[in-house]
C-alpha cells in the first residue's frame, strides 16, 4: 500500500511537470507558482486526523528571480498564511486591520530570519465523512511539543474506510489495520490498531524526539506543565475562532487547568 501511494506521488509529479512546461511555454515563466496538498495518505493516523502524517503537507514556492532555488525554511507556517502572502505580493497590505489569521510569508521567501508564529493550530470534526461519527479533534503545537485534544474521545473514532473494506480503494486503510490486528494481542501492532479507534482525551507528543507521534506523554506527570501551557493556548485560540466547542472543552479540561 505504501508503494501504491508513492506510485500516485510519481504520477502527480509528472502531471505537475506537464503544467510547468505549458506555463513556461506560454510565456509565464516569471509567474508565482505555489504547490501544496490537503492532507496525507488515507492511512491510519494520517488522513482524517491531526497527527503530522495528516496535516504536515508540502508547501513549495517557485518564483523566478524572487525565490532562491533550493531554499529550505523550517519555520512554522500554515495555510492561513497563503492569503496574506498573495495579498502582499499583489501590492496590498497583508496585515491591514488584523482581520486575517495568517501572516505574509514574503520575508521567508526572501530568506529573512523571521519567526512568524509561536504556535500553530488545527481542527477536525469528522462530519460529512462517509461512516464518520461525532469525533471532533483540536490541536496546537510549537516547534517542540504538540497537544491533541479528542473532545468526545469516549465515542471512539470511526470512519467507514477504517471499519470496512473498500474494494475501490488503492490504499485500503481497513486492510492496513486488520494486518496489525492479525499480529495478535500484546504486540505493538495490535495495540496501535486499537489506539486508532480508542484514544484518550489528551495527547501530548515531543515533536523533536518523537516526530511520528508514537509515545503519548499526556498523562506523564513530568509533562503536565507543557500540557497546561498548550491547553491554555488552544482554548484562547478556540475563543478567538468562536469555536462552538469552546465551553465544552473548558468544562472537560477543568481539572487540568
What topology emerges from the helices and strands here?
Blueprint: H1 2-25, E1 33-36, H2 52-55, E2 59-62, H3 82-89, H4 106-109, E3 120-124, E4 137-141, E5 145-150, H5 160-163, H6 173-181, H7 188-197, E6 202-206, H8 224-240, H9 246-252
Antiparallel strand pairs: 1-2, 3-4, 4-5, 5-6
| Biggest β-sheet description | 4 strands, antiparallel
Based on secondary structure, the structural category is alpha+beta
SSE order, as H and E? HEHEHHEEEHHHEHH
Number of helices: 9
Task: Round the Cα radius of gyration to an integer and report it.
Answer: 20 Å
What order do the strands of the largest sheet run in, or round the barrel if closed? Answer: 3-4-5-6
Short overview:
With 257 residues, the chain is α+β, with helices and mostly antiparallel strands. 34% of the residues lie in helices and 11% in strands.
Features:
257 residues, alpha+beta, two-stranded antiparallel sheet, 6 strands
Question: Your description of this structure?
Answer:
- This protein has 257 residues and is an alpha+beta fold.
- Helix content is 34%, strand content 11%.
- It has nine helices and six strands.
- The protein has a four-stranded antiparallel beta sheet, with helices on one face. It has a two-stranded antiparallel sheet with strand order 1-2.
- Strand 4 (137-141) and strand 5 form a beta hairpin.
- It is globular, with a radius of gyration of 20 Å.
- The model has no long low-confidence stretch (mean pLDDT 93).
Amino acid at each position: 500500500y505504501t508503494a501504491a501511494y508513492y506510485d500516485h506521488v510519481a504520477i502527480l509529479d509528472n502531471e505537475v511537470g506537464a503544467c510547468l512546461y505549458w506555463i513556461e511555454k506560454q510565456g509565464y515563466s516569471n509567474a508565482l507558482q505555489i504547490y501544496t496538498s490537503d492532507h496525507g495518505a488515507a492511512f491510519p493516523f494520517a488522513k482524517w486526523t491531526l497527527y503530522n502524517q495528516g496535516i504536515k503537507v508540502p508547501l513549495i514556492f517557485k518564483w523566478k528571480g524572487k525565490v532562491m532555488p533550493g531554499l529550505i525554511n523550517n519555520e512554522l507556517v500554515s495555510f492561513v498564511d497563503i492569503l496574506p502572502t498573495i495579498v502582499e505580493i499583489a501590492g496590498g497590505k497583508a496585515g491591514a486591520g488584523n482581520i486575517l489569521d495568517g501572516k505574509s510569508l514574503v520575508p521567508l521567501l526572501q530568506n529573512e530570519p523571521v519567526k512568524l508564529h509561536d504556535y500553530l493550530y488545527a481542527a477536525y470534526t469528522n462530519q460529512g465523512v462517509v461512516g464518520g461519527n461525532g469525533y471532533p479533534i483540536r490541536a496546537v503545537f510549537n516547534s517542540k511539543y504538540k497537544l491533541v485534544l479528542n473532545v468526545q474521545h469516549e465515542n471512539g473514532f470511526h470512519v467507514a474506510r477504517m471499519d470496512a473494506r473498500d474494494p475501490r480503494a488503492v490504499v485500503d486503510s481497513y486492510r492496513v489495520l486488520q494486518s496489525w490486528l492479525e499480529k495478535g494481542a500484546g504486540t505493538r501492532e495490535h495495540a496501535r490498531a486499537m489506539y486508532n479507534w480508542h484514544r484518550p482525551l489528551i495527547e501530548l507528543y515531543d515533536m523533536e524526539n518523537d516526530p511520528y507521534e508514537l509515545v503519548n506523554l499526556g498523562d506523564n506527570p513530568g509533562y503536565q506543565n507543557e500540557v497546561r501551557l498548550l491547553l491554555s493556548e488552544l482554548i484562547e485560540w478556540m475563543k478567538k475562532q468562536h469555536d462552538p466547542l469552546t465551553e465544552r472543552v473548558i468544562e472537560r479540561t477543568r481539572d487540568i487547568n
